Amino acid sequence: MENKILNFLLIGLEAEAEKFITPLIASHKIYLITKSEDFESMLDNPIEPPPCIVFVGKSIEKPSASECAQFLKMQFAESALYYVSQKLPDYNRKELLKNGYTDVFSLEIDQNILTDVIKQSIAKQSEKVKSYRRVQLVDIEENMVLDFDTLVYLPANNKYLSFTRPGEPLTIHKMSKLKKHGYTTVHIPHQQSKLFYKYTTDRLKSVSQDKSISSTERQERMKNMVRGLLSDLVAESSSGESIATGRKLAGECHKIVTQYILSTPSGGWYKKLILASNEDADIYSHSTNVATYGTLFSLATGKGNPEYVAFAGILHDLGMTRIPQEIREKDYSTLKSKEKETYQSHIAHTIDLIKARKLLLPDTVKTAILQHHEAFNGSGYPKGVSGHAISPEARILAISDYFDELTIIRPNKPKKTIKEAIDALSLQLDLSEKACIFDPVILEMIVDLFKFPEDETTDTKKE
Amino acid sequence: MLLPGSKILIVDDMSTMRKMVTKMFKAAGFENVSEATCGSEAWGIINSANPVFDLVVSDWNMPNGNGIDLLKRLRADSRYGKTPFMMVTAEAEKNQIAEAIQSKVTAYIIKPFTADVLMEKLRSI
Known about the structure:
heterodimer, A: 463 residues, alpha/beta, 5-stranded parallel sheet, two-stranded antiparallel ribbon, 9 strands, disordered C terminus, B: 125 residues, 5 helices, 5 strands, globular
């Protein structure tokens, strides 16, 4: 493969950081900004094509790290944006992420992961011209006009063959041709991903409102669509193990869910909630993840009201802000009983805050928030209710909450891959009903969502 | 509804941000865009403007006269009581939003944002 020269932008890095990063990107074009004036002139002479990665350090006086990020995110929306510091901890990680940084690294502890991230970005960018995403055939409606290209992969000569052009449908005839040759997937150019998300959102919406099909059929189709989305999430997460790709996909799922909710009658409400909970500044945060997974799970299993799950997900931990940080950050199982009590009071605080902010929520949403730590076997809190006394929205929320706790990246906490997290969830299924903290019926449906056919390179035949 | 000839004022202490927002407006066909570096300068420009501005887009945090004070001053002036005012900020703290809403802000946008988001907010004005 020929080496493509990429652009990199280094802004105000400390000497050590610059010395560390430069050799890693030596064969590419490096732009250096060390003075505030140079920063300003960037608007007049934009870097083309946009940099693959922008690194920012603290050696530039003005603009501040946050201002830098806000500007850079607007100027180079697609570029990865990393804050790199020499020492630990001389920055506020959360604040930086909130302001738009893709990630924050300290040379003292993150050298390996930083090297990895840079290498992966380069590899990914170099391939971008011919990079495609895989889409299951079941995710594409027959005879519906598509805004994007579809291609089929020919494993024998490692080539992609154009199959339909934008504006054309995958006709029944074309579909059956694909199936005859053993294809279960087609490919879409990565640059057209956004069009595919829009397509998926539209389909989710139209299927969920389609009264002409039976409810069983509708549920089956919804399930398949969500599975298609999740399969991407799992495939990327397990192949690259890259934090950045995992986050990006979570973000993409989030966009689809948000678009979906916005298209429902409660859409205006959701917008306000996101604004009120300050979630769109940091789309990778726990609450948005829980809302995203919860909504997808609800759509796919047909349990609970997906819109209400989304609301409850966004708000469920609002009260955490009132719990002392040292308790919040500890592993729950190691807390002393007094600390546990404090931790558990976050639910009451959430309800309090909702009242204080005069958020008028449907009772279903409030119940879901109140019950999201209740366990199916009755061992949860605050009330210790069990089984179907817990609302379906709360039962869904409990699973997505746990799922995100396992997979989210937090300082000082090992992260599980999505596959490992699903394995952990499946373990619950082997328990007796008395020991299972989740609704086993819903849990089984969710675990089932993550079972995919093997990678297609093994199941396709030569055209 | 803003027409292409609308008179717009961008207030931000960060020059790159100012330039960028101006660029977004110009790209969308709004040619009549002025800039101010802080709340006090903005008020000077607004106060002496004739005809009055049709839209003010202001950052929240600025060293010399912040966005919320500018908004309050505008709302206290009979000529600008109903003029669309868009607050731009990175700190989407709930109490700030509440304060801005109480002071009759028209729209709220959180940095970083894209031209699309800005235009969507404009349509809602």
